[in-house]
Write a structure and sequence with these properties.
This protein is of the alpha+beta class and 676 residues long. Helix content is 36%, strand content 19%. α3 crosses α4, α7 (381-390) runs antiparallel to α9 and α15 (567-578) crosses α16 (587-594).
């Protein structure tokens, strides 16, 4: 394998699938966040999620308005990510769901850890051979995007130094934490004073297990394999939530020529290799662009590996670039007075201004939209600048490489160039927004433009989503990568002692492995498909609990068809059916009727009889079937056993409530007797 420190990176940015992770000094670790099927972590509220949107929130749910500001960390510094969020001038509205109380509203101190959540976290720690800590010390992790009413997330380290076995090789587990989930975003509304974000508090405080691996992931494909293995380990407890959004993967990705980036929003595991490869392509592109720009300003090139960077030299380059790209903002609204673009005229008429940022020497470096070999957008500086601007709440910016376009004509571009006194090698960026917002957006653009002379910035990025799924696997910036200043002790939650006896008890009560569950279900007379579904849908424990009392295949069907109903109710209804008091066909309807209750056998049978679900007497059935077969004797003789299908419907319509298996057997016998 080539040494990335001395080897110039090789690869075609337009063919991300062909990039060589080894040659490029690829490093990757994964963070998995899994919701637990318990109550909330630091309040005793139930862990219920309500299926509401911004348009269907019940009117009686109260709303609270807040603004948040960044607090200093334990070392006295304000975290860089928190400082950035504060500058965005956003306000927040919190919708109080029925399972959100004073703790969720940050009006009451939190309670100690939920016992079930701690037990599950210890179980997962044991499954990963991790070493538990002796005390759970709750920490506050600063979060100023509004998703936590308090401005921080509570998190507790549970264990360290574990290992996850995968087919490609072992992956170290650095830490396993127990933390609170955030509130769910319902909507974002633009106002003249900044964005207003509306959150639902139903998810806030749900316990999450956070698992962070070591950077042992060997390739983009291994990242997918590792995520799947972590998911299997968590589901082995049978105490984690299932469904969309219940588990989230974050990818920490870097190349030797780039730097660490945390990518969020990777819910669909099949997309993980593509997302990572596109990030590799992006980092390679901006390394090469940085060296192009450094050549223009007579700055020394970046080494192929960030470990060879000279901090003092990079500081000198930064000073050179700051002088080359000063913060110069010009109001060029008058240049667009004759612009026919509805978007431009609407903005100017509503009080916005067209603000311009000159960027000397960057003409032709922003790029225009184009696609790689698989249809994903190629990395380009213009897209990164737009992403930086959008974090200030604007919808986007215009840059000189893409103009004229969007109703902005050549005459307007020339007017801006004349106003800014630019030459042919100079570029510019325009922002149409209220004055304060346009200034913040273009300051962000300038900061990102200056970074183009260096390696890609360490930041948190989000997968670009369209209609609920990744658009093409590319990402957009969210915020700077947080540092250590965001964490400080939580003084309202007492430390939680984890003694050796608690750990030993965990080790002695580990859940069954997948192989053990497969072996157990194979002992019952069920079809392969039924066995697979029972295991995949985590219904095998329910099945086994009552299987000894009921027909195996029939009970499997009932469990699979009524997976949300009370298992004891389902077993009782099936027992009444086996006693011949209700029909097979009526079971699901009866289960649905009684769901949430637990009737005895007599009540079930009485309901069945009152609603026509009691099977017809077998003797009466036989007589009815014999009459139907005799009436259609010519048809039966002509078709033989082929008459079964057509006559089955006729018989069932005639007899009403009846067991289909009994009817089928009697009809078969009647047809055979006539044929003889």
């Amino acid at each position: 394998m080539a040494d990335p420190i001395r080897t110039e990176p090789v690869g075609n940015v337009e063919d991300a699938a062909a990039l060589d992770p080894g040659q490029l000094g690829f490093m990757c670790g994964i963070e998995v966040h899994q919701q637990l099927a318990t109550g909330k972590l630091h309040s005793r509220q139930p862990g219920v999620l309500y299926d509401v949107t911004i348009d269907t929130v019940p009117e009686q749910w109260k709303r609270f308005n807040r603004r948040l500001r960044a607090a200093r960390g334990e070392g006295g510094a304000v975290d860089i990510a928190a400082r950035f969020e504060t500058r965005r001038n956003r306000s927040f509205v919190y919708v109080q769901s029925p399972n959100a109380g004073l703790i969720e509203l940050d009006e009451q101190p939190p309670l100690t850890h939920d016992e079930d959540a701690v037990s599950i976290a210890l179980t997962v720690s044991a499954l990963l051979n991790a070493k538990p800590v002796t005390l759970l010390q709750t920490m506050r992790k600063t979060v100023v995007d509004g998703s936590n009413t308090s401005g921080f997330q509570r998190t507790s380290l549970v264990s360290i130094d574990g290992v996850l076995q995968t087919e490609t090789g072992p992956v170290g587990i650095d830490v396993l934490c127990l933390e609170e989930d955030s509130a769910r975003k319902l909507d974002t509304v633009s106002t003249g004073e900044g964005e207003q974000v509306i959150y639902n508090l139903d998810r806030l405080g749900l316990p999450l297990i956070e698992i962070a691996t070591a950077p042992d992931v060997q390739s983009p494909e291994h990242a997918k394999e590792t995520s799947m293995a972590l998911g299997r380990c968590l589901r082995q407890t049978r105490q984690v939530r299932r469904g969309l959004g219940s588990i989230r993967q974050d990818l920490n990705v870097s190349l030797a020529c780039g730097d660490r980036v945390e990518i969020k929003g990777c819910q669909d595991l099949s997309w993980i290799p593509r997302i990572i490869r596109l990030e590799m392509s992006r980092q390679l592109h901006f390394y090469r662009l940085a060296n192009e720009l450094r050549a223009q300003t007579s700055s020394p090139p970046l080494p192929p590996d960030r470990r060879s960077d000279d901090a003092s030299l990079e500081a000198e380059v930064a000073q050179t670039v700051a002088a080359h790209l000063p913060l110069t903002l010009e109001n060029v609204s008058e240049s667009f007075s004759s612009c026919d673009s509805k978007m431009v005229q609407s903005g100017l008429n509503s009080g916005s201004i067209m603000l311009a940022l000159p960027l000397p020497g960057l003409a032709g470096k922003f790029g225009v939209k184009s696609a790689d070999k698989e249809g994903a957008q190629l990395p380009r500086l213009g897209r990164e600048l737009a992403g930086a601007a959008k974090l200030a709440g604007v919808k986007g910016v215009f840059h000189s490489d893409e103009l004229p376009a969007y109703g902005i004509e050549s005459e307007h571009v020339d007017a801006v160039r004349n106003h800014l006194s630019l030459d042919i090698n100079d570029g510019f960026v325009l922002c149409l927004a209220p004055s304060w917002q346009a200034e913040l957006a273009l300051e962000s653009v300038l900061t990102r433009a200056r970074m183009a002379w260096h390696r890609i910035p360490q930041e948190v990025r989000n997968v670009v989503v369209k209609k609920g799924a990744p658009e093409d696997g590319t990402t957009s910036p969210m915020r700077p990568l947080p540092g250590g200043a965001r964490m400080y002790p939580e003084t309202d939650v007492p430390v939680y002692a984890l003694g050796s006896e608690r750990w030993q008890e965990t080790l002695e009560n580990l859940p069954m492995t997948d192989d053990e569950r497969q072996e157990r279900i194979s002992q019952y007379e069920v079809s392969n498909d039924q066995a697979s579904q029972l295991l995949a849908r985590e219904l095998d424990d329910v099945y086994v609990q009552y299987a000894s009392q009921l027909p195996h295949k029939g009970w499997a069907s009932v469990v699979l068809e009524n997976d949300t109903a009370d298992p004891e109710l389902c077993a009782n209804v099936m027992a009444v059916k086996e006693a011949g008091l209700i029909t097979r066909e009526s079971m699901n309807e009866i289960i649905e009727h009684f769901n949430g209750k637990l009737p005895n056998s007599e009540q079930i049978a009485a309901y069945g009889e009152a609603n026509g679900f009691k099977p017809a007497d077998e003797g009466d059935l036989g007589a009815i079937i014999q009459a139907i077969v005799a009436e259609r004797a010519d048809f039966v003789r002509e078709r033989g056993m082929g008459a079964m299908g057509p006559l089955m419907g006729v018989v069932m319509q005639a007899v009403g409530a009846a067991d289909g298996k009994v009817v089928s057997a009697l009809l078969r016998e009647a047809i055979q007797n006539l044929s003889e």
